[in-house]
Design a protein that fits this description.
It contains 14 helices and 17 strands. By secondary structure, it is of the alpha+beta class. The chain has 2 domains: 15-140, OB fold (Dihydrolipoamide Acetyltransferase, E2P) (Beta Barrel); 166-476, 2-Layer Sandwich (BirA Bifunctional Protein, domain 2). α6 crosses α8, α6 runs antiparallel to α9 (303-315) and α6 packs across α14 (460-468). The longest helix has 23 residues, at 172-194. The model is unreliable at 4-16 (pLDDT under 50). Bound molecules: aspartyl-adenosine-5'-monophosphate.
């Protein structure tokens, strides 16, 4: 039984602990009295106290009667010092022969490490702490060799890393990226809640397509056919029509697209909002304030994680990433202007064409950061997007209240104001070759008084690519699903 140690403060981590979690709130568990981070950051006050910690064996050194074990948990590293004289022989041997990454629990007194020998005039480094071990056990052996190096930098390709994601995640910079992912979701949530949005969950087993029927994954649902949801679109709208007013959802979306690119997956997390009494410009405001908040919070709280990512990038001769808080408002480049920019920049494009990545490169030369492209042609937007009635394009084509948010060459978000008049909505469905009768579950929601409303869907992994400098969404998705990967 481990004695509860009372409140454990967590002082600013030393350089060695950068990127490790602040564990101030972590309570003792069945396997440890303290996190390693708690011991390391409070060492001076803990000298002589007995602690039990557990972690992965990073290195095991020494021979004969002494052994130095470097242990790592999610909050830090600490050296455990073992003397054969103080321990049972078989136990000592088991630790001394432990393979890298084996999990080990040690108990012992916190002690100050012997300070290093200093050259004449060299300033003394801050004191470091270790554990003088009186008890230990190997919890689970690690097989050797490791298919992916954790602390040593052996190059392996992305496929091998993803096959062994459980080990890949133990690497400091990969771990830091996923901590950043958690932070982005947390700050995004916080921001939306501060603007009066509430979190909802919508079904992922559905009967009708939200984003067009060709890229749905079909599934057998008892005696009938169903699909995996491509987007919470229709359901988040129904929630708003039902009076929830401002909603958001962070959930999976499935698309049976045969893309094989750095930014497409067949399952991705879509961060969606929908709000009543709002138009396209209103929800663009929500989007840019949310991103501004995320970037500000990361800059205020999480630069240690960015440093860990940058240390790795430096080792690979890659430019460091910087957390530049974008200024508000983000530029708005209406679709018609974007087309002109592409044409002037030498790109081939006509009004009514999609703006593809190579076109975006031309636009990004002028607008390298976040920028909105509002007012797309009506013909290019899904049936639920609202017509922009007060404006026509120079060519006479109808404009919509649909927009995209791009960063550089990559689309982050699509959104817009929605059509809330049921007769127009049904006509839009017919115009797109869809059968209104298949959508009554949705259109019925508009028959009893529908508020004008708007929203957007943001690709979480794409935003993480911007923040972490990852060149591929797979880097920031734990277990990506693409055409050639459904395991692990
Ligand atoms: P859209 O289809 O543009 O819009 O998707 C919204 C955002 O989701 C991300 N995304 C993807 N990310 C990874 N892999 C994919 N295959 C993939 N497809 C899309 C992109 C994209 O901008 N219902 C609308 C949103 C709305 O209007 O509210 C929708 O789903 O970052």
């Amino acid at each position: 039984m481990i004695e509860p140690p009372g409140p454990i403060p967590f002082k600013t981590p030393s350089r060695h602990e950068r990127g490790m979690r602040d564990s101030s709130g972590w309570r003792p568990t069945a396997y440890r009295s303290h996190t390693i981070g708690q011991v390391v950051s409070n060492g001076a006050d803990m000298i002589g106290s007995e602690v039990t910690v557990a972690g992965y064996a990073e290195t095991v050194r020494g021979r004969g009667g002494i052994c130095f074990l470097m242990l790592r948990d999610g909050t830090g590293h600490i050296q455990a010092f073992l003397k054969r004289d103080n321990l049972d022989d078989s136990l000592f041997d088991a630790i001394q022969s432990a393979t890298r990454e084996s999990t080990i629990q040690v108990t012992g007194a916190v002690a100050q490490k012997r300070p290093p020998k200093l050259a004449e005039g060299e300033p003394a480094p801050p004191p470091e702490y270790e554990i003088s071990v009186t008890g230990a056990r190997v919890l689970a052996d690690a097989a050797a060799p490791l298919p992916v190096g954790v602390t040593d930098d052996v190059h392996v390709g992305l496929d091998v890393r993803l096959d062994n994601r459980h080990l890949d995640l133990r690497r400091a910079h990969v771990n830091a990226m996923f901590q950043l992912r958690g932070k982005v979701l947390q700050y995004g949530r916080d921001h939306l809640i501060s603007e009066g949005f509430q979190e909802i969950n919508t079904p992922k087993i559905i009967a009708a397509a939200a984003e067009g029927g060709t890229n749905l994954f079909p599934m057998k649902y008892f005696e009938t056919d169903a699909y995996l949801s491509q987007s919470p679109q229709l359901y988040k709208q129904l929630a708003v029509l039902g009076g929830l007013e401002r909603v958001f959802e962070i959930g999976p979306a499935f698309r049976a697209e045969k893309h094989d690119t750095y930014r497409h997956l067949n399952e991705f997390i879509s961060f969606d909002i929908e709000g009543a009494w709002m138009d396209d410009e209103d929800v663009m405001g929500v989007q840019e304030r949310m991103i501004h908040h995320i970037w500000s919070q990361v800059a205020a709280n999480d630069l240690d994680l960015i440093d860990v990512v940058n240390e790795y990038r430096a080792s690979q001769d890659q430019e460091p990433v910087t957390v530049d808080i974008p200024s508000l408002p983000f530029p708005r480049i209406p679709y018609c202007d974007a087309i002109e920019i592409v044409k002037v920049g030498g790109g081939e494009i006509e009004w009514g064409d999609d703006i593809e990545s190579h076109h975006c490169d031309i636009i990004a030369a002028q607008y390298p950061g976040f920028h909105f492209i509002p007012r797309w042609p009506m013909s290019m937007k899904p049936f639920y997007i609202h017509h922009k009635e007060d404006e026509e394009s120079a060519s006479g084509g109808q404009l919509s209240r649909g927009f995209d948010l791009n960063y550089g060459r990559d689309e982050m978000t699509s959104g817009g104001q929605r059509e809330h008049r049921v007769d127009v909505l049904e006509q839009n469905l017919r115009n797109m070759g869809l059968e209104p009768a298949d959508f009554t579950f949705y259109t019925d929601g508009f028959r009893y008084g529908a508020p004008p409303h708007a929203g957007w869907g943001l690709g979480v992994a794409r935003l993480l690519m911007v923040l972490t400098g990852a060149g591929n969404v797979r880097e920031v998705v734990l277990f990506p699903r693409d055409r050639s990967r459904v395991t692990p």
